[in-house]
Amino acid sequence: MHAMTPPPPLLLACLLALLLAAAVAPPAGAVCVPRKPDGHTKPGAPAAKPAPPKAKPKLTPAPPKPTVPPIVPGADIVRSLCMKTDYPDLCTSVLSKLPQPPLPGGKRLDGAGVLRLAMAAVRAKAAEAKVAAAALANDPRTQQLARGPLHDCVESFDDIAYSLDQAEKSLAAGDRDTTGTMLDTVRTDVDTCDQGFEEREELKPLMATQDAELAKLASNCLAIATAAGLR
């Protein structure tokens, strides 16, 4: 047998080149897309991770608006209604000293009960003022010109008691209009006593102190009746 003749060196070089080209060539159908360079990324650096989405700011709820506490029956109703008046301190101090009327069946004090207490305070102060006016009218040291206005004050204070009686009856009957009218009359009766002295400038207003307190107490009655829905 004849020995095989080795291929020439040039042929071997060509075969080797073809094998290397086949090894590095991309597979059939593959398309190479060149990557666009990033201005902030260095060549050869790993791709930057996408930034996480920004969290939305939490909205803080607006504070609730203050609400007026409802007027409920009980021990605090006196203070609650007195705070609705123009003279809350006087109202609270006077009404807290008055004995509360007995309530049947464990019933708690309500708005009508507070109004009755306020009217009782006016009645008591009017009675005191009547005694004071009568004493001054009968005092020999009192100016003769002042005796007429003092007698008018005595009558006005009697009128206050009558108006309170009518307001009490109307309140018991649930007649809000008449209740309000009679409470307005109480306030007018107080002014009537003052007017007798105001018409005579030379006279000192002898009942000014009593009238001022009565005016405040009568004003409190009106405010309490309004706040409690009784007029």
TrEMBL record:
A Pfam family recorded for this sequence: PMEI
Domain spans labelled Pectinesterase inhibitor: 73-224
Keywords: Signal
Signal peptide: 1-30
Keyword set includes Cytoplasm: no
Region feature Disordered, mapped onto this chain: 35-70
InterPro entries linked to this entry: Invertase/methylesterase_inhib, Pectinesterase_inhib_dom, PME_Inhibitor
Protein's UniProt keywords contain Signal: yes
Name under which the protein is recorded: Pectinesterase inhibitor domain-containing protein
